[in-house]
Amino acid sequence: MTATAARSNRRKSDNGSTGLTISRVFTTKGVHPYDEVEWERRDVVQTNWKTGETVFEQKGVEFPSFWSVNASTIVTTKYFRGALGTEQREDSLKTLIDRVVQTYTKAGVEYGYFGTDADAEIFEHELTWMLLNQYFSFNSPVWFNVGTPAPQQVSACFILSVDDSMDSILNWYKEEGFIFKGGSGAGLNLSRIRSSKELLSSGGNASGPVSFMRGADASAGTIKSGGATRRAAKMVVLDVDHPDIEEFVETKAREEDKIRALRDAGFDMDLGGRDITSVQYQNANNSVRVSDEFMNAVVDGAGFGLRSRMDGSVIEEVDARNLFHKIAKAAWECADPGIQYDDTINAWHTNPATGRITASNPCSEYMSLDNSSCNLASLNLLKFLGDDGAFDAELFVKAVELIITAMDISICFADFPTESIGETTRNFRQLGIGYANLGALLMAMGKGYDSEGGRSTAAAITSIMTGASYRRSAELADVVGPYNGYAANAEGHQRVMRKHQAANDDLRVLADDRTLHAVATREWDKVVTLGAKSGFRNAQASVLAPTGTIGFMMDCDTTGIEPDFSLVKFKKLVGGGSMQIVNQTIPRALKRLGYKSEDVDAIVEFISEHGHVVGAPGLAAEHYEVFDTAMGQRAIRPMGHVRMMAAVQPFLSGAISKTVNLPENATVEDIENVYLEGWKLGLKALAVYRDNCKVGQPLSDGKKKTDGKGEAEVVEKIVEKIVYRPKRERLPKSRSGRTTSFSVSGAEGYMTSGAYADGRLGEVFLKLGKQGSTLAGVMDAFSIAVSIGLQYGVPLESFVQKFTNLKFEPAGMTDDPDIRIAQSFMDYIFRRLALDYLSFDDRAELGIYTAAERARYVETGSYLSEEDEAELPEAEQLRNDAGDDFNVDGARQPSLLDAHTTAELMEAMGVAEVDAPLCMTCGTKMRPSGSCYVCEGCGSTSGCS
C-alpha cells in the first residue's frame, strides 16, 4: 500500500484530526542522524573463559566510536541477523536500526498514525537518533524479529491460562512450549485446577496442580536442553486459599533438600550438570497470590479457610500466621515462593469488566489479563541529566511520546505465538515502557539510593513517565481509536487514571524535585481530561523490567530500578581483554557534591584499590550513602530496596522486576517482615533471595563467610540424612611410582609415591627416623591414613591445603631447588606432591610454582612459558602481559587476573561473594539484574529479554 493510499484510508477523529503531528526534538532538519556521529569498524571476538574456545567471531562490524566494546559485542552477537560469513549477515548498527525503525515507520503510515509524509520522516529520524545515541532501546524480540523473514514477534512477556480440564492442561503444555522455543517466557495461575483433596467426576481423587507442574517443568527443561543456551523462563502462581497451597509452598524447598543430598553423595548438581535434571520444579519461579483477607488474618493471628475449586466452600481451615511462616521459611531455604498481592494488583486494574488479573510474566513486572502479551522498551535515565545536575523533564516527556507511539504501532503488524494471545493483545494493546540507570542517575545527582532524596526523585520521574505515556495514549485514541476493550472498561480505566493522579497529588517531593513534580501533575491532569473525551489506545502503559541485555546495549551502569551493583567494573578493551575501572558516575557525583579535582582524583584512587568509599581521603561521612551499592562494604539494606519499590509503584501500570537480597544470616522472621511490609506499602509483588541458600548452581567459591555473629538467630534446617558410603578405588597390582630423597634443615627422609594408570596419586609412604622409633611408627600410620583417604576419593588438593604451611621443627633450608625453604616436614612433603601430581592451574590456585616458573614471572610477569602463553586466547595473553599497575581514565588500576566480570572482580577484591550462576554461553560469572541474572561478557540472561 502506498503512503498516499494509506492516508486516504485514515479515519478522521471527532475533531477532524487525520494523524499525529511530529515535531523535531533531537534531530536537525536536512541532517540525517547517522551523519552526526563518527563511525568505526571493529572486530568482535567472543571467547569462553573456561575452555578458551572462540564461540563467536565477526570482523569489521560498524559502530559509532562512542559505543563501548561491550555494547557492540552484545549487539553483534545477539541482534545482527543472517548467517555468519554470508552476504546476508548484518555488519553495521545502521543496518540493524534501519531494519527496525523503517518497519515501524512504514506500519505507522499504513495504519494512519501520521498526519503527513513529513511527520512520518521526522518520526523515523527522531527514533533513529534516540536509538543511535542510546537514549532508549526496545526489548530483545524486536531486535531479533522485526524486519526479518521470521514472524514479527515483538513481545517478551506472556501470560497464559489453564482451566480444570485435561484438554486445557495439555494445551498449556503446548502453548508454553512454543513460547519457550521462541526464547520468551510465560506465567500462569494454576488455581482453577481442583486440589488433590477434591474428587473427580469418576469418584477418584484429583491429581492437583502440583502434579501437573511436574510435567510442565520437564517440558521446559527438555526444550531448553534441545538447543537453547539459557534456561526456560516461567512463572507459576497459586492462590493462597487453594487447598494444595502448603504442598505448592514446600515443593521447591523439598527439591533443594534432594539437591544437597545428591551433591553430598558425589553427584554433579551444578547448574547444567549431568545429574541436575533429576531434580524437579527448577525451571519455574513460584509465587503465592495472597489476598488482603489472608494478610489481615496473619496480622490478627486468625484462622483462614482453604476453599474448594468446584463450589468455593471451605474444606479446611488453617492458621494464617502459621501458613505465612511456611511461605517465608520456604523462601528462606530456596528463594521460592515469591509473593503477589492480589487485591492491590486488581485495585489498579484498568479492565475489571473483562476479567481479573490472576498471574504475571516470569519476572513479575507484567500483570494483565490471561492469554495476553506485552512489548517492552526502556529509557536510559542518565541521558536526560544535564551538565547542571538537573533532570530534563521536558526532553524526557518528548522521548516518552515517541517511544509510546512506536510501541503501539508495533502491535499493528506483530505476530503472536497463539491466536488467543494475539486476539487479547490486539484488543487491549498492553505496553510496558520503563527505564534503566536509575541507580547511576541518583548517584550522579549526589543522592543516596536509600534516602528520602533518592526516593523523591525516582517517584517524580516515574510519575512523569507513566503520565506522559497515558496522555500520549489518549492522543493516539483520538487519531486511530481506543483499544477494542475500552468501551466495556471505560469506567474502570478512568478510575485507575484518577488513582494515579491522586497518588501524584499526594506525593511529597523534596524542594529540588518540585519542577519534576509540576511536570508530572500537568501530565496527569491532561490524562484525566483527554481520556474522558477520547478514551485510551492502551490498557496499560508502564512496567519496570530487568533491562539486562538491552541495558548493556545502552551502556547503562545500572539495570532497571536497581542501585549500582559495585563501584568498580570491568571494561572491555578494543582488541580483547578487559580492565578494571572505577564507575564513571563517581567523579560526576563527587563534582556535584562540591569536591575539587584533586580530591576527586584521590577518592577515585582509593575506590580503585579498595572497592568502597569507607575511609576515602577527604570524603565526608555524610556523603557515604551516595555511593552505597547492591553488594560490598556498604550494601543497601533489604528494606531500602523495598522502600524504593514502594516509592515508584503507585506510578506504574504493572509491577517491578526486582529481588530483595538478604544476607546469609537473615532469619525466616526477616523474610516475613519484608513480605509483610511489601503488602503494607502497596507493592504488587515481591521476591527475596538469601545469599547462598541454593546449591543447584555454581556459586562464587563455595566458602561460607561468617563473622561469628547471629548464629543463634539463624533458623536451623533439619534435613533427613541419606547414608552414603564411598567406594574405595584400589591401586593396580603393578603401578608406577617415584621415590624422592629430601633434607629439611639437615634432617633427611625418603618419600615413595604410587599412582593410578591415569597419573593420579594413590599412595604415599614416608620414612623418617630409625626403624622402630616412635617417629617412624607415627609416619607409617600417617602414610596409611593419607593413602586410604586418596583411594576413597579425597582430592590431593585437600591434603595440600591442610598440610602446607604447618610450622614445626625441623624447618629451614631444603636440598630441593623447587622448594628452597620449608616450614616443616609436612610443608615440604605436600608441596613436593603438589608439584609432582597436580596440574599447573590447580597449583596456581594454591600458590605453588616450580623454580623455573617463578623465574619466568620475575622476567615476564607470567608464570607460563612462551609456548604455553602462545596457546592461550589473545585476551588472556593481554591480561597476563598487564603489569600490576596501569592507568585507565587517570586512575591506578590493579590487574586481577582471575576476574572476567564485575561479579568476579568483587570476589577477587575480597569485597563480597556473588551468589550467581555461570553463563552457559561464555562461562563467566553473571550478576543479579532484577529477578534474573545477566552476563557482562556476552549479554546472555537467565530468562529475561
Automatic annotation (TrEMBL):
Keyword NAD: no
Record Gene3D superfamilies: 3.20.70.20
Positions of the TSCPD domain: 732-836
Domain Ribonucleotide reductase large subunit C-terminal: start-end pairs: 155-689
Enzyme class, broadest EC rank: oxidoreductase
Keywords carried by this UniProt record: Cobalamin, Cobalt, Disulfide bond, DNA synthesis, Nucleotide-binding, Oxidoreductase
Xref: InterPro entries: RdRp_reductase_class-2 (IPR050862), RNR_2_N (IPR013678), RNR_lg_C (IPR000788), RNR_NrdJ/NrdZ (IPR013344), TSCPD_dom (IPR024434)
Cofactor: adenosylcob(III)alamin
E.C. number: 1.17.4.1
Any one GO MF annotation of this record: ribonucleoside-diphosphate reductase activity, thioredoxin disulfide as acceptor
Cited CDD domains: RNR_II_dimer
Domain Ribonucleotide reductase class II vitamin B12-dependent N-terminal: 43-134
Keyword Nucleotide-binding listed: yes
Reaction catalysis annotation: a 2'-deoxyribonucleoside 5'-diphosphate + [thioredoxin]-disulfide + H2O = a ribonucleoside 5'-diphosphate + [thioredoxin]-dithiol
Function in brief: Catalyzes the reduction of ribonucleotides to deoxyribonucleotides. May function to provide a pool of deoxyribonucleotide precursors for DNA repair during oxygen limitation and/or for immediate growth after restoration of oxygen.
Family: Belongs to the ribonucleoside diphosphate reductase class-2 family.
Protein name, UniProt field: Vitamin B12-dependent ribonucleotide reductase
Organism of derivation: Tessaracoccus lacteus
